[in-house]
Amino acid sequence: MNIIKRPTVLVDLDHYRFSFVNPPEKNHNLEYEMSASDVHIALKKGFDVIFDGNFRAEERDPFLERLFNCHPNENYIFYLDASLPETLERHKTKTSPRISISKMKEVYKFASPIGHKNEIVVPESSTLEQTIQTIVQVTGILKE
Q1: Is the pTM of this model over 0.90?
Q2: Which residues lie closer than 8 Å to 86 by C-beta, 6 or more apart?
Q3: How many structural domains comprise the chain?
Q4: Are residues 88 and 104 in contact, defined by beta-carbon separation less than 8 angstroms?
Q5: Distance between CA 88 and CA 82 in Å, rounded?
Q6: Separation of CA 16 from chain center
Q7: Within 13 Å, how many C-alpha atoms sit on residue 119's CB side?
Q8: Measured between alpha carbons, how far is residue 3 from residues 43, 59, 140, 141, 142 in Å?
Q9: CA–CA gap between residue 122 and residue 135 (Å, rounded)
Q10: C-alpha angle with apex 83: 82 to 87, nearest 5 degrees?
């Protein structure tokens, strides 16, 4: 069932982050360049973009600023504020996780809201249905 009004694409940072075989250098940041490129292409072709990424960011993060500056209207950040045990439980439900449980524990310490004016923090107590409703209300993506 298609409930979204407009053409939409999911760009998953982890797809890029864990796709490299023998990268030329350890901190190459190619995952950011490549995912941003796909975001820009999708926006240019008329798609709405859901960018899914776990990364350390700040309110004035250069990566997010570049993305938002290329498409200045209708940008939202949804931070799913879940404890480490809840995050690990949710991770178990992924059909093809790209990150191990031990790596998830390692990177979790970097997770936090960034305080951006467009950020909506979704509490751990929010059910899947409530979270979807929040996103629908904020973005207006649901068909009438």
Answers
A1: no
A2: 124
A3: 1
A4: yes
A5: 9
A6: 13
A7: 17
A8: 20, 31, 11, 8, 5
A9: 9
A10: 70
CATH of the domain at 135: 3.40.50.300
In a domain, 18, yes or no: yes
> Contact at 8 Å (CB) between 142 and 5?
yes
The domain in which residue 39 lies consists of 8-139
Q: Is 144 within a domain?
A: no
**Helix 84-92 and helix 101-108, axial crossing angle in degrees, nearest 10:** 150
Residue 2 lies in a domain: no
Per-residue pLDDT of the chain (144 residues; tens, 9 = 90+): 456 677 888 898 888 887 777 777 776 778 888 999 999 999 889 888 888 887 777 767 888 888 888 887 888 889 999 999 998 888 888 777 777 888 888 888 888 888 888 889 999 999 988 998 898 888 877 654
With residue 122 as reference, give the H or E element that holds it: strand 119-123
Residue 48, in any domain of the structure: yes
**Burial state string for 101-113 with b = 16 or more CB within 10 A and e = fewer than 16:** eeebeeeeeebee
